[in-house]
Amino acid sequence: MIKAISDVNTVKDLIREHPGPLAIVPTMGALHEGHLALLRKARQLVGPTGTVVISIFVNPIQFDRVSDLTNYPQPLKEDLKLCEAEGVDIAFTPEKEALYHPDHSVLLTESLLTRHLCGSSRPGHFDGVLTIVLKLFNVIQPDFAIFGNKDFQQLALIRRMVRDLNVPVEIVGHATVREEGGLALSSRNSRLTREQRQDAPRIRRALMAARDLAVTGEQDPSVYLNAARTHLLGNAPEDFSIDYLQFVDAETLQPITRVTKPAVLATACFYGEVRLIDHIGIRS
Ligand code: PAF
User: Fold this and answer.
1) DSSP H stretches of helix in 47-151
2) What span, in angstroms and rounded, lies between the C-alpha atoms of 183 and 201?
3) What are the backbone dihedrals phi and psi of residue 40, each rounded to the nearest 5 degrees, phi first?
4) Which residues contact 60 (CB under 8 A, 6 or more apart)?
5) With DSSP H G I counted as helix, E B as strand and the rest as coil, what are the percentages for the chain, rounded to 5?
6) Does 1 score more than 90 pLDDT?
7) What is the rounded distance in angstroms from the CA atom of residue 270 to the CA atom of residue 245?
8) CB–CB of 254/184 below 8 Å?
9) Domains and CATH numbers, the chain
10) 7 phi and psi, to 5 degrees?
11) How far apart are the CA of 219 and the centre of ligand 1, in A?
């Protein structure tokens, strides 16, 4: 039977009573199949007698747009039912006040991997992500933490934080889960209209069309970028726009001038106010 706890000290006490190993799946709720895959991975890692913890917390300090925060779906009751069905042991569901002091003034900042992609298009976003993830690690003290590869810049940053700050946790990435048409699962998909949702696989198709160029041995990033942009914008609905489309080194996340090493083509696109991200490995 899942235990849903919002108090920090209570969750710490409860965790002490549970046998290790312990895995956490940090989420902002509005759970979908992608999250459930992370929970299954967590169970696989800790085994039937280990402990699986999910955190469900819409972290206000990682939102760069007020409308994105206020419209973020929060179906907590349904989420808890899904967690129960997946055999989650503990759901940590704190209120903002339980995690952030009214005068909190310390933020975690990364200065290299955040220079491009979502780091530059959403100023402050990753400070908020890293800060909350480190706080969750400190409260829960997991052996494993599982994150989706869809947010590949987030995952790279969390790995870097763990490495650079010697945080004693193993970070595990999990493959992106997609709808049949290729749209990456995201809690924000539920905010798309039916027409937008039908159209949204164009993002995946555009990235795949660009990746197909790799077999020709093409090394000029602009050729890939042009191919992806053409597919993204071809017959696109009026409310569709590209936030960014960038080509970066898979390891350093810095822009590349030649495609000679594993690289990542990444994009963020808007349907109206709803922002979706996706990426594809090139020569990976
Ligand atoms: O990926 C998310 O859902 C969030 O960024 C995370 C990691 C739970 C931090 O709030």
Assistant:
1) 66-70, 76-85, 96-99, 118-121, 125-140
2) 5
3) -65, -40
4) 69, 96, 128
5) 40, 20, 40
6) no
7) 12
8) no
9) 3-174 (3.40.50.620), 187-277 (3.30.1300.10)
10) -90, 135
11) 34
Q: How close is the Cα of 259 to the center of ligand 1, in Å? A: 30
- Closest protein CA for atom 5 of ligand 1: 129
Mean pLDDT of 195-202: 98
- List, edge to edge, every strand of the sheet that includes 51-56: 3-5, 90-92, 51-56, 22-27, 144-148, 170-174
User: For ligand 1, is residue 176 a contact (CB within 6 Å)?
Assistant: no
Q: Does 262 sit behind a cis peptide bond, omega within 30 degrees of 0 on the bond before it?
A: no
Q: How far is the CA of 28 from the centre of ligand 1 (A)?
A: 6
What does the pLDDT average to over 188-214?
A: 97
Give the per-residue pLDDT at 12. 97
Task: Supply the pLDDT for residue 284.
Answer: 67
The mean of the pLDDT values for the chain is 97
183: its two tokens? 């749209």
Separation CA 26–CA 215 (nearest Å): 37
| Residue of 27, 79, 159 to mutate, ligand 1, most atoms within 8 A of C-beta | 27
pTM for the whole structure: 0.97
Nearest by Cα to 276 from 266, 284, 265 = 266
Ligand 1 and 89: CB distance under 6 A? no
**Mean pLDDT calculated for residue range 173-182:** 97
Selecting among 32, 35, 101, 174, the annotated active-site residue is 35
* 176 has a pLDDT exceeding 70: yes
User: Is 35 tagged catalytic?
Assistant: yes
| Ligand 1 mutation target, pool 108, 149, 154, 159, most atoms within 8 A of CB | 154
pLDDT tens readout for residues 241-262: 999 999 999 999 999 999 999 9
